[in-house]
Design goal:
The chain is of the alpha/beta class and 207 residues long. It has two domains: 119 residues, Response regulator (Rossmann fold, 3-Layer(aba) Sandwich); 67 residues, Winged helix-like DNA-binding domain superfamily/Winged helix DNA-binding domain (Arc Repressor Mutant, subunit A, Orthogonal Bundle). 52% of the residues lie in helices and 12% in strands. The chain has ten helices and five strands; from the N terminus they run βαβαβαβαβαααααα. A five-stranded parallel sheet has the order 2-1-3-4-5, with helices on both faces. Strand 3, helix 3 and strand 4 form a beta-alpha-beta unit.
Amino acid sequence: MTDRRTVHIVDDEAAIRRSAGFLLKKSGYCVETWASGVDFLKEVRHATEGCILLDVRMPVIDGLEVQKALVEQGVTMPIVLLTGHADVGIAVRAMKAGAVDFVEKPFEMAILLGAIEAAFARLHDKERHAASAQEAALVIAGLTPRERDVLEGLARGLPNKTIAYDLDISARTVEVHRANLMTKLGVHSFPDALRIAFAAGLGTDRE
């Protein structure tokens, strides 16, 4: 890697800062760590341009509040959320607000690095990595009505069991529809499917 790209790790857990920092440094990134969202927001105006690896659950000010504050300050560095399994709905909200991706803890090296690469791709080539509403609508038109219903539920941040209850089908059937719709959308990750859904206007009628 010729350019030393900077990743800001904002997480109150020292162990996460150490482990993620080690993986990223080993892969050629510069790393700056912050023990709280408050600390990062105080210094962000003077921080090196790069991307932000932001924990969702932190004391005093959580990841969503940090993201909102960054937007209000006009900071455009791309954000990757660190989230626990139970926080996926929150991560969906963060992606609606512009986050690039989210990575669940405990994270795998390949998944973390893939998300960071996507963040830097967004930073350097925003046009190429933004799905247009027209393209998204065209792809989603190929889904069955039930697959679209499932995608709508996912875009709202609903868990499979809730989607199953709302649609009066089994959770297993929701999983099958989810797998099928991802194949039809041509994506391999849940965040990629969400980006298409949001571009097409799904999941926007309620939080």
